[in-house]
Specification:
The protein has about 700 residues and is of the alpha/beta class. The protein is built from 27 helices and nine strands.
Length: about 700
Amino acid sequence: MIKILEQIWGIKTLYVDENYISKFSSDEAAIILCITPRNYDRLIRLESLRGIFARANLSLNEYSVQLGQIGIINAIKALQIDINGVLNGLNEIAKNDIIDFAGYSLISEFINSLELDFTKVDSAKAQPFHKNLHTLNEIHQILSEFEFKEVSQRLINAYDSANNSKFKIAVTGVINAGKSSTLNALMNQNILGASNIPETANLSILTYSEDEFAKVCFWSPEELKSMNLEPKEMKDKIVPISELKLYTTAANEISKMVKEVILGIKLDILKDGIDIVDTPGLDDAVVLREILTANYMSQSDFTLHLMNASQSATKKDMAFIVNTLKNGKSGGLIIALTHIDKLSQNDIKEVLNYTKNSIKTELSECGFDESLADETKFFTISAIKNIGIDELRNYLYESFFGSNSKKATLIIDNYKKELLNITQLISDDLKAQKTALTSDTATAKELAKSLQNEIDEISNAANSINSELENLLKRLNYDNENSNATLKSISAKIKDRVISDVKYATDKKIKLDIMRLGVIIESGFNDSFIDFFRDFKQQISKDIDSASKILELKLGAKNANLTLPDIRAYIDEHLPKINYEILNSDVNKAIKNQKNIELLGANLTTIFDDFIINLNLTNKLSTLALSCTNEFITSIKSELNSMQEHLKTKEAQINTIAKSNFDNIKDKERLIANIDSKIAQCQEIKNRIELC
């Protein structure tokens, strides 16, 4: 530890406590780490730096600076200061010439070399998500021990939903981008490209499993036929990992039949529900595999795109990145430049800046706003020398599970809401039992009668609501007769844009940029589909919201106990997935085969019209409208039935207690005291849940 001080301070190195841990933010830590004898006199005059040290109760002198630097390094190793934030801060400081390049390289390389084992950190302490999940799971266990059969299934469902959620990352890149080596480094284990694991020509899904396995999934006969292969019916099979290459190596004929491979592996990085989707190269010649990759990307929380630093910003890369950004992955796109160990620090900075500028230029040339790239995160890494790998891993973990993760927050909020509802139900039942025990027979009977009235009210509400739901289904005639005309008018604009590009290339006698055309076509249609789907969601959600309000009025306060599906999320999940591979292929063939511009325009009109017709969006959306409404109706009926059954059980309990004869008063008092204790415990549980 002291060696880094000696490298920075030389003969001015002072004796400091090597176990000291500093309490600074990552930005403050970056500033302190960059202080050297060369800039010390200049920086200590800054009021902002004096403020940083004052808040840490330290004087601003050489001893405190060196103590702070050691403390920061220890805090980074203990994961008390975000390494990613420190490195980003150092990068910004170097850009502003506060520290020279040699000093920046020395410090950043040392920080990158620190051995941080994120997988062995107590996750409950490392991230708010895991801390809250751990607490809520403890509460779940306590509630289960109450042994209320009426809520047992709800408890199981709540636990499963929170603990079995998946966080997915799709890894992409052209061939030789370094996907296998980067993933192996990220996982701290040689999984991909090892002797018993296939090359990544097939799409591979890495998921956590205590018992390791490999599942080989095959293309359907129809899919094989579309690839001009013999259409065979092949069942997916579980095989030993050691035998996987028999199915995936190109030398084996059966490899052509393999659609994807699922690897269940006992790896800590996967243990928290992270699934890694290792996709084939972007330059894969098999169209169906590109479609499969696109589908997985659309389902993933993040896309990690790898580019060889020596060959970055290729046309294929740029087309992929622009299309990804245009389709809404700006906050979920991570770009990593690999193999940086082969470049100098100056070259790395140049390549990084060149890549960022190339993306913005490509966006602009394709007619998109350059700001789409603003949220994209960039890393420079070397799997061989483990440079930037810990930084990337930390960023992923923070993005998935940190306090700013929308998905993690939603999981916790839903878990909290359901546990609060269950706790309230248990508390209400306990209070009713106490009332029956502490009241006379007539009062207990009155309580049982009031429960029967509640049951009747819910039954009447259910009949009324069922009638309203039937009307909802009748109203659900999703009519989109103007949609095809709208889409055709949009396709005409896209056709004109394509023709314009073809004319320009012809007039200038330059090669037509096919990749750029693909982006233009996809983004043009996607823009129209976004509006199209938004109108659909608004129409369906409006009808279902209307039914929900009627339900709320009928049930009053009891409505709070219902757990209904999130219809908007259901629609988003089941919206038709649009794939453009075949469309782009048809357009490319038309351009290649037809040199006459007028005839080409007519051909493109036919291709685009056929594309729209074959999407069959009207029928697909009508089917979706029906399915999501049925989902809503089924859920309401199930919930109402559960409420009735719960009240019937509660009524039976009250009647049993009211008729109970106690041998002595102490037995009754003990039972009341036990109920009081559980009611108090319920209140404590609610307080704990609210704090998560």
